[in-house]
Amino acid sequence: MSWLRVNNLPPHWPEGVARHILDRVDSTNAEAFRLAPSLSGPAWIMARRQEAGRGRRGRAWTDPAGNFAATLVMRPTGGAADSARLSFVAALAVHDALHSLCGPSLNLSLKWPNDVLLNGGKLSGILLESSGAGGQVATLAIGIGINLAQAPEATEVEPHALRPVSLAGETGLRIAPDDLLDALAASFDHWQRQMQTYGFEPIRNAWLARAARLGETITARMGTTEATGRFEGIDQTGALILTTPRGRQSIP
Ligand code: BTN
């Protein structure tokens, strides 16, 4: 593994945040936990090639060449609930960074809890992993994968799995992972500051303004069971609110 650049920061890079760019890694989330003991503050870790990317529910995340894989690692000050809210901050940041680079006509939307969709297909996935005990989070890794160049093969057999899409495949647009990292770090910093100053409400409102299928009937997973109902929004904790034939249901 070789370090291409460390702390050679672009103009709008958030103050106090380190930036590491690797040419090759197993998983940027795994690297985040290896690096965490040596860090004095938050850091973005981006890899040009990720060979054993991790997805949600223990799945693998495959990264064809030219796609974006990065992790923001930090020691959060709040507890587990505050950390979970950062997944909404991350989804907003991905959405807004892509709009800032590609223009507002890009057909992006958000799917609960933190997928970013392009033309209704899955463009980006976010995986939060943490270490710690007793409700306290010692290290939080917010891993973000974005299919910039190629959509990975659709391997899921679940009935509601989204079609994987890529930015280049859907639009012909090509953006460099380095440029996206800069825009993403700035956008994440903006939304994180909003949350620090005003709480979750502005995040919730901004997320809802970008949400896909609000008011429509959707099916959501809750552990191993599924619930189908009208998608009403998200509450102050980020839980999904559905109106089902059995009444109002909240999915944490
Ligand atoms: C999902 O399953 O939707 C979440 C996928 C998250 C993938 C990203 S790529 C960068 C970071 N490193 C990993 O190993 N996983 C996340």
Protein architecture, described:
With 252 residues, this protein is an alpha+beta fold. 27% of the residues lie in helices and 31% in strands. It has helices at 28-35, 80-102, 167-171, 177-198, 201-209, and strands at residues 3-6, 18-22, 43-47, 53-54, 60-61, 68-74, 108-111, 115-118, 121-131, 139-146, 217-222, 225-234, 240-244, 247-251. The chain has an 8-stranded mixed beta sheet with strand order 1-2-3-6-10-9-8-7, with helices on both faces. Strands 11-12-13-14 form a 4-stranded antiparallel beta sheet, with no helix packed on it. Strands 4-5 form a two-stranded antiparallel sheet. The termini are far apart. Residues 1-7 have low confidence and may be disordered. The site of biotin (BTN) has 19 residues, from helix 1, strand 4, strand 6, strand 9 and strand 10.
Percent of residues in helices: 25-40%
* Structural class by SSE content: alpha+beta
Strand order of the largest sheet: 1-2-3-6-10-9-8-7
Our estimate of the beta-strand percent is 25-35%
Ligand roster = biotin
Oligomer: single chain
H/I helix tally: 5
Radius of gyration: 17 Å
Listing every helix as H and every strand as E from the N terminus to the C terminus, the arrangement reads: EEHEEEEHEEEEHHHEEEE
Low-confidence stretches: 1-7
Overall pLDDT score: 91
Largest sheet: 8 strands, mixed
- Report the end-to-end length measured between terminal Cα atoms: 39 Å
Q: How many E strands?
A: 14
**Shape assignment:** globular
